[in-house]
Design a protein that fits this description.
Residues 127-135, 141-152, 203-212 and 265-294 have low confidence and may be disordered. The protein has 294 residues and is mainly α. It has helices at residues 5-123, 130-133, 135-147, 156-192, 195-202, 207-255, 258-261, 280-293. The protein is rod-shaped and about 195 Å long. It folds into two domains: 12-86; 97-198 and 212-261 and 270-293, no CATH class. It contains eight helices and no strands. The termini are far apart. 5% of the residues are buried. Residues 194-219, 263-294 are annotated as: Disordered. Residues 200-217 have a biased composition (Low complexity). Residues 282-294 have a biased composition (Polar residues).
Amino acid sequence: MAFTQDELQSLNTILEQKLATQRHELERTFDLRLQGLRRDFEQRIATVKSDVLSTISQRLIDQHARTREMLVQNFEAQHARLVESVEQSLELQQQEQQRRLEASIERPLAAQLLAIEQIIHQRLPSLIPSTEFFPDDIEEGQAQFDTIEVQTEIPWDELATLVDHALEERISVLQESILTAVKDLQQSLITHMPTAPSTSAQGNASPSANSASGAQPTADATKNIERLEHLIEAMQVAMTANSSLISNRLYHHQQLPLERAHPTQNGVHRPSALHSFHSPRTRSTMSESSGTDE
């Protein structure tokens, strides 16, 4: 069966139209699928992007917090070590200065007290018995000083006032006893003075010798009285210096921390600051002087 040229041309035209229609449908189908895939891909990309951003931000926040915490801990530890080292150096300097100050004050005071005691025992052995002034008073004063304890419940001003009052009482008792001895000496001189004219009247052959012998006790008594006055003044000065030393020690004791201010709480017994004023050398000198007087 043979087809004509027109039939073949029309058949080709029909086939071309169908192919063009199918091509358009395929292109449209592909475009729709590509658009759907593009939308899905963009949504997936947006979701992944948001997840990545949130994860990175959370990790950055956690890392920042950990870094900040670590830096704060390092700074606090460094600050604590620095403060501790500074406090230790300051405490060592304060202890050294306090030891030097105590040594510079105690040495002259001990030497002064020792010199005063030696002068008293050397110049007044016959007029004033040493056992009347020093051993009993020192033992009693030592007992009173031993009973005084520095505690945090007592105000420092009140404690200093009590110590000053105790020192004033001891000074007043010592001064009264010395004045009593001076009065007794004056009375003894007054009683011996009337005997001088009678002896001079009986011994008219030698008036110059009698006058010299009568003036000698008066001069000795005057010198002894002057010595007593000087000794009283020296003892008052020494007691004043002792009181100022106690006040200074109480002030330094107040500045110390609780562990160093009360070492007995840690189980270690140390002599109190008030007990340290009577050094072993002073007490031994006092006991030797009292023994020689007896």
